[in-house]
Amino acid sequence: MRGFLVLSNSKGVRIASGDFLQVGQGGEIKTRTVLYFKDGSLHDETAVFTQQRAFIMKSYRLVQKGPAFTDEMDVTLNRATGKYRVKVMGRKDGKEKVLDGKLDMPLDVYNGMVPIVAKNLKGVKATVHIVAFTPTPRVVELEVIPSGKERFLIGDL
User: Fold this and answer.
1) How confident is the model at residue 124, as a pLDDT?
2) What residue ranges do the domains of the chain occupy?
3) Nearest C-alpha neighbor of 63 from the set 108, 18, 124
4) Alpha carbon 30 to its chain's center
5) What is the pLDDT confidence band of residue 116, given thresholds at 50, 70 and 90?
6) What pTM value is reported for the model?
7) Cα 100 from Cα 118, distance rounded (Å)
8) Where are the beta strands (DSSP E) in the chain?
């Protein structure tokens, strides 16, 4: 599956465009969201997950580069081991900082998967978790509430 994304600011001005890609392979699904900002910045987020009885994130990677972000960041997270690596390049001082560690995560950590989880809710809200990298990782609770469905047209269809 492929989707085309446009990100606008609160005034409706386009600040980025990109792609949403989803590919199934060998019982796993890989989803990737890439946003290219007008200022040259890049947001590239990839999650690999399974979806037997419940969604389970297996791995996650986030790359953020360019002036749209306070610092440049390259993050990897492995569900099975709990290991993470955060490489941060400070914009002000130009120094690289690397954080390696292990994180205890609940089963419902859905980094890179929140739109997929929201789409699969059956009209009720759900509380799930994501790992926020600030740059030190921490597990945060996220309440997902479906707000309805809207149809939209692409081009002249």
Assistant:
1) 80
2) 2-106
3) 18
4) 12
5) confident
6) 0.86
7) 31
8) 2-8, 14-25, 28-37, 42-51, 55-65, 72-78, 83-89, 96-102, 126-133, 137-144
